[in-house]
Amino acid sequence: MKKQYLGRIAAATFLMSFNVSSGTLDGESLISLETVSVELASTGRATADVTANSIVINPDYSMGYHFRIYITLTNGATFADSDYVLEQSTAGAATGSINDFVLINKEVAGSSELEFVILTSAGIDASDEYILSGASVPGHAININLPELAAGETVQIEAAGRDYIGIYEYYDGVDLFSYMNEFSASVDVLADAVIDRNSNAQTFTNGNLSDQIVLDFSNLPLDNKVSLRDKDLVRIELQGDMSNIESLVFKTGNIVRGSFDLSENQGQFSASASDAFAFASNQIIATLNGEIDHREMIKTRSFMISTVLEFSNGHELVLIDEKTDAGRWKYNGLQAKVPRMQLNESGSSSWITLVNEEFESANVSAEVRWYIDGSTQEVASYVDLGEVPGRSIITVTEDVFLQALGNPLEPVEVFITFTSLSTSNQMHVIAEKNGVEGRFLYPVLYDSNSVEPRAWLN
Predict the structure, then answer these.
(1) What is the pLDDT of residue 425?
(2) What is d(CA 250, CA 240) in angstroms, rounded to the nearest whole number?
(3) Which domains, and CATH codes, for the chain?
(4) Sheet containing 85-88, strands listed edge to edge, beginning at the edge strand earlier in sequence
(5) End-to-end CA separation in angstroms for the chain
(6) What is the mean pLDDT of residues 277-301?
(7) How deeply is 379 buried, as exposed, middle or buried, from its count of CB atoms within 10 A (0-12, 13-18, 19+)?
(8) Spacing of C-alpha 9 from chain mean position
(9) What pLDDT sits at residue 325?
(10) How many Å apart are CA 69 and CA 163, to the nearest integer?
(11) Which carries the bigger pLDDT value, residue 117 or residue 49?
């Protein structure tokens, strides 16, 4: 059978001792607890077979005619075979009678419980042992339908005895299967880079040509597990601004497996699951093309990721949830801030002077956050202030900002962030006001932590 739907239990012995006084399943249990893949069982068609002659029952109690033994699987597991017998073990398997007990279930296959009744008039002795067989003759494996369970859940085998009055004892179960997640994935390394305007946004800072997101994939070596096929896929979806990206590739084991299909706000790629899970660490590598959208240049670019394991039979498993943080990119240098400026005040006016000491011209834009009565806030995310020619000075009056804000009638207070596309640190901002109290300068904030004086903010 296909491994994706079948698991196998190694040979083991399950020895039960019915002891009325203790109320437990006494005696030695040599059965090995087997691990089961949650993904395998989630198909709803997974089975595991317990090796023939491995389940041996010793009631340890004299039982009379018409006494009964119930053998039960827990947590939704069911017996898969259509017939079962209890064979008396006199010297091992296939050596004793199969007529001491009779299975009396109305429905056998798909039942979680087997009910056996003693039909021998002499009953059975406390020392008698019986081997469970998954057929009408001795020596057959016990096939079990595995239920869909979450990681950490277990399947046990239990037993109970009944006399003429009713159930006289329940016995503690023994674990047969323990469920674990076979496949998992996580984001190990986030995107974390600064796009370098000084290279016309063709590289990241420090001369780095690329940035990467690292995904960790893991598949546990379980006893009953899925065997990945060539057509099983890992579907990866990266959300975020994809502009300015030249290529986005998926790499495993130092081999580029292919490129993402890119749209404006999304990148998608489907990798062979066997390739992805063959290596613990896999990379999504991005390179840039230098095409900048001026409207986006003052924004941090954030990414979110999700991954799904898609089996060829149509079953899907979410490995990384939607909207999982995958990191962010920033733009370097060349920003300055005016933290407080009054506009639209009667009897006064404010303005900005942009001084470009570089020989080449550079575009300057602004993000304007404004407040009315110190509380209500609005944002004009992109105000194009135009090109500042090389070795030149331009003045931007408050009317430009008021127009961007929709020409409010009342006085407003604004917080302005300026961004320049200059390739050097030679663009300067002067903010001034002239009113009834005279003329004065607003403070302009640059990056005071930079090694360069008056360096623009990141």
Answers:
(1) 73
(2) 17
(3) 6-180 (2.60.40), 183-330 (2.60.40), 335-442 (2.60.290)
(4) 25-26, 14-18, 55-58, 130-133, 85-88
(5) 60
(6) 78
(7) exposed
(8) 30
(9) 97
(10) 9
(11) 117
